[in-house]
Amino acid sequence: MATPIQGRVVEKKLWTPRLVSLRFEADVQPFKAGQFLRVALELGGDLVGRPYSFVNSPEEWPHEIYFNIVEQGQLSPRLAALEPGDALWVNPVANGFLTLDEIPEVRHLWLLATGTGIGPFLSMLKTDGPWRRFDKIVLGHNVREARELTYQDSIDHLLQRHGEQLSYTPLVSREHVTYTLHGRIPINILNGNLEQHAGIKISPADSHVMLCGNSGMIEQTVELLAERGMKRHRRREHGHISSEQYF
């Protein structure tokens, strides 16, 4: 493992009392959109770190992470307390295989996230790669409350640039909101609402599904898609589903 290096916070955004974005400067090695790096703080004389996905694209500066404050967590409340100018530590080498170069050629790309899992998908969509490769891209973001539908400025910008290719579907599970689908991603796949909203079908013939977020969503979605003949993608055995589990 590479030796951690020091970075410095340049901006903090508190989206809700529990959702935070941090932008920071650090001499991180080149990475691929969709990857993560380990961010740490010195606590009790030790470096305590966790993996966080990049929200920024590889061409953007400064770096950005998006995370949920775990109330009794050792690290996240302290990260959220940082202010511009404060120091943090990062592993300069990124990791992770939730990247576009890992998936086969298909026509339709489905990016389905819960909560902060939208971060790596935004990193991907800020690059030119997906718009050259896919006829249609669906971004589904599932949250509990409408106020957690974050990064709307970034999404609006993507829709303005790629409106014919990009379909954005917000899903809210604990409120009924007119401009969103109600309920969780698996339910909206099962009842057909997600595909109806996107205007295309999830099919093993022309679709690849990338999942990022909580384990329950990922497991249930994989089970539903398996009923359609879709399977997990592996380097040695091409499939239709890639995933990154956050908790």
Keyword list:
about 250 residues; single chain; 12 strands; FNR_type-1; alpha/beta; Elongation Factor Tu (Ef-tu), domain 3; Rossmann fold
Q: Could you walk me through the main structural features you see in this protein, from its secondary elements to its overall organization?
A:
Belongs to the ferredoxin--NADP reductase type 1 family. It comes from Candidatus Tenderia electrophaga. One of its GO terms (molecular function) is nucleotide binding. It catalyses: 2 reduced [2Fe-2S]-[ferredoxin] + NADP(+) + H(+) = 2 oxidized [2Fe-2S]-[ferredoxin] + NADPH. This is ferredoxin--NADP(+) reductase. The protein is of the alpha/beta class and 247 residues long. It has 2 domains: 5-90, Translation factors (Elongation Factor Tu (Ef-tu), domain 3); 100-245, Nucleotide-binding domain of ferredoxin-NADP reductase (FNR) module (Rossmann fold). The protein is 21% helix and 33% strand. It is built from 7 helices and 12 strands. The strands form 2 sheets. The protein has a 6-stranded antiparallel beta sheet with strand order 4-3-6-1-2-5. A 6-stranded parallel beta sheet has the order 10-9-8-7-11-12, with helices on both faces. The longest helix has 12 residues, at 215-226. The model has no long low-confidence stretch (mean pLDDT 95).
